[in-house]
UniProtKB/TrEMBL annotation:
This is Glycoside hydrolase family 5 domain-containing protein. The lineage of its organism: Eukaryota, Sar, Stramenopiles, Oomycota, Peronosporomycetes. Gene3D superfamilies: Glycosidases. Residues 1-57 are annotated as: Disordered. One of its GO terms (biological process) is cellulose catabolic process. The chain crosses the membrane at residues 90-109. Keywords: Carbohydrate metabolism, Cellulose degradation, Membrane, Polysaccharide degradation, Transmembrane, Transmembrane helix.
């Protein structure tokens, strides 16, 4: 076969299209550049066809997903609820927290009230155990600031005035400073113990088996209309200033008594 000759064609001028002498393109180079030029031309044509005046795409269109109902109001931007909303969740969280705080507070108040009721029941039961059983009820019971019943830290000042007792016509009268005279019937008892070397009234040791407190003795006397208590004393103990025996008094249930 004859050797393939290299095909050459004249180079076209850029302006007049006339052949330029002395210059040729190889066929392979011409073909590659022509294809690239054609490709660029087509791409530019397509891109320019997609955009109109002002750079707006001519292929853009508005799509409607659902045909609107007849007579319905035109749709607005704020009608679309696709954006994530956080305020309903925040309101729900605040409501849950407020409900939890309210329930905890109510439960704490109920627990405190029940604890106070239980403490009061205990103190009433403890006072009832100390009470001298005579079938009568007290008109007034002293309750301390710490809740203890019938065991005061300090006895209140009753504001009583010691009258002048006088005997007239075989009867005792209580004469006040303003001259008022009231006949008095003495109903009393003797409370022994201070005349001994122990120098303390008996019966105040109070334990689970026996004994009582000064308050309960006084309450018993008041309920039964006693108005006099005689305490025998020892002159020697008074002269020597003998202190009472602390082992014979329960200081926990006689908090208002000072025996120092």
């Amino acid at each position: 076969m004859a050797e393939a000759a290299e095909i050459s064609r004249p180079m076209v001028g850029s302006m007049s299209g006339a052949p330029v002498s002395g210059s040729t393109f190889r066929n392979s180079e011409y073909t590659r550049e022509a294809m690239e030029s054609s490709r660029l031309t087509e791409s530019g044509g397509r891109e320019s066809a997609m955009y109109g005046p002002g750079g707006q795409r001519q292929t853009e269109m508005k799509l409607m997903a659902v045909e609107p109902d007849l007579g319905a109001a035109p749709e607005r931007t704020k009608d679309y609820k696709g954006r994530i909303r956080t305020w309903p969740g925040l309101l729900l969280l605040l409501a849950i927290v407020a409900a939890a705080v309210a329930l905890i507070t109510i439960n704490a108040i109920d627990v405190q009230d029940q604890a106070n009721i239980n403490a009061q029941r205990y103190e009433n039961a403890a006072q009832n155990r100390r009470k001298i059983k005579d079938g009568l009820d007290d008109d007034n019971v002293i309750v301390s600031d710490d809740g203890q019943v019938g065991n005061p830290k300090k006895y209140p000042d009753m504001g009583c005035e010691l009258p002048d007792y006088q005997s007239k016509n075989g009867q005792i009268f209580a004469v006040a400073k303003n001259g008022t005279e009231v006949p008095v019937g003495i109903k009393g008892l003797n409370w022994f113990g201070m005349e001994t070397g122990l120098a303390i009234p008996f019966g105040l040791w109070e334990n689970m088996d026996n004994g009582t407190s000064v308050y309960e003795v006084a309450a018993f006397l008041a309920r039964n209309k006693f108005n006099s208590v005689r305490l025998p004393v020892c002159i020697k103990n008074i002269l020597k200033d003998v202190a009472p025996d602390k082992s014979l008094i329960n200081l926990n249930t006689n908090r208002a008594i000072n025996i120092t």
